[in-house]
Design brief:
Length: 65
C-alpha cells in the first residue's frame, strides 16, 4: 500500500482540488428552429446542423366505437 512521504498542506490540497469543480454543459442553438440543445446532439424537434435528421412521430387518433 502506498504511504505519503510528506503531509500536503491545506493550501496545496485546495490547489489540487480547484480543478475538480463541475462545469455547465455546453449548449448550442439550432439555426433553423432556435431551440437550445446539447452540443453534438439532435434538438428535440429532430434537427441537427440545420437539417432534419429524424421525423417526429404523429400519434394516430383512436376512434371511439
Amino acid at each position: 500500500m502506498a504511504v505519503q512521504q510528506n503531509k500536503k498542506s491545506p493550501s496545496k490540497r485546495g490547489m489540487h482540488r480547484s480543478h475538480g469543480a463541475l462545469k455547465k454543459p455546453s449548449v448550442a442553438i439550432e439555426s433553423t428552429t432556435g431551440e437550445v440543445h446539447l452540443r453534438h446532439h439532435i434538438s428535440p424537434s429532430g434537427f441537427y446542423k440545420g437539417s432534419q435528421v429524424i421525423e417526429k412521430k404523429v400519434p394516430d387518433e383512436q376512434e371511439d366505437g
